[in-house]
Amino acid sequence: MKRLIIPLISFIIFISILAYIQIYSCSNLNETTFLLENKQQELSDKSTNAKINDEAKNVSIPKSINKEIVNIDGLPEPINMDKTNWQSDKIRYVKANDKNSFNTIQQAIDSAKDGDIVLVANGIYRGEGNVNIDFKGKAITVKSENGPKNCIIDCEAKIGTRGFTFRNKETGNSIVDGFTIKNGNNSGEYPNTSGGGIYCASASPIIRNNIIINNSALNGGGIFSDGKAAPIIENNIIANNLALREGGGILLSYANSVIRNNIIARNTSRVGSGLWLAFCSVKLINNTIADNTVIIEKESLGCVIVCSLSNLEIVNTIVWNEDVPKVTPIIFGGNTEFNISHSVIQGGRENITINGGQVIWGDSNIDTNPMFINVQKGRYQLSEDSPFIRTNIGAFIRTDQIYQR
Fold this sequence. Notes:
Blueprint: H1 2-27, E1 32-36, E2 39-43, E3 49-52, E4 55-58, E5 64-70, E6 76-82, H2 83-87, E7 91-94, H3 105-111, E8 117-120, E9 123-125, E10 133-134, E11 141-144, E12 151-154, E13 164-166, E14 175-177, E15 180-182, E16 185-186, E17 198-201, E18 206-208, E19 211-213, E20 216-217, E21 223-229, E22 232-234, E23 237-239, E24 242-243, E25 250-260, E26 263-265, E27 268-269, E28 275-278, E29 281-285, E30 288-290, E31 293-296, E32 299-308, E33 311-315, E34 318-320, E35 327-333, E36 337-341, E37 344-345, E38 352-355, E39 358-361, E40 372-374, E41 379-382
Parallel strand pairs: 7-8, 8-11, 9-12, 10-13, 11-14, 12-15, 13-17, 14-18, 15-19, 16-20, 17-21, 18-22, 19-23, 20-24, 21-25, 22-25, 23-26, 25-28, 25-29, 26-30, 27-31, 28-32, 29-33, 30-34, 32-35, 33-36, 34-37, 35-38, 36-39
Antiparallel strand pairs: 1-2, 2-3, 3-4, 5-6, 31-32, 40-41
């Protein structure tokens, strides 16, 4: 028996020493190491060469994955994912009735962490989890996969519904990108009164590449922002929205915002049919603001922008109502400073109504018909005959049509 025990103990000690050496060696590798069926395979982050049983092999390991999506114009806009993001599941994919995806946008947001992307497949999204979508303060991007014409949030005109809500101090790291948001309705009783399409309260998200259309509210038919906010609103079509009171397209209060490269057209309200600004500091850059209408006592008036107790800078922007008579493009009130340059303003300096404050009429402003392609069909791009077609004036958004209400 003793003759058997001694060799057995020696064998166990030998095996233990080998195991220790192997573990110690693995812990000191500078590259990623995998053990497969007791055979060592090394994959280097610095090359695509791998060693399998000490034999060199060439293994294709992508340094990054490019998920190509499109913007509002249908142009490609890649999402770049490095290996770390790919391995840590940074993208939360939304597709209705797909067992391998989140089925609602809100589900994906609830699961997401700061820095994640919620990527939404083509489709029409309705009902609970797909309206009144709340970012909940997360620094994430919620983005359509193939642009706003293919990814639609339909609120079905139900009272108290809108597309997105930002109310938890979101910053510019919270981005909504590439949706059609339509048929929101916040024209009821409090609290369902503001922001037919998007609502911001003390929040500063980026609102980009969306079509915000046919929404309604008491205030801010398309977008409403209040409470020391600084949203960036860029590359959107904001059209055919209705506010029963102020701000048919956009209402901003106590906001420091940049609004650039948007088409804001055919919106309606009692005051400030295109934009209504109060206690704000706002830059309007490269926008086309056209055919917005104020209705008072059944009379249509082309009052486009109302600015009260605010500072407003307008650059490279068209403010024009071709399809609406009796145009008053801009009204200022209170202690307001208005700085305008390199823009097309219908009626020129004389057609701006001022009730306090001052207008700084800068260089290269002009009162000339911009010659849109076809306003009756909602084509607000500049035609080839436009005197501004080769300039940097107006919005640079390609779109098919903006329909009348």
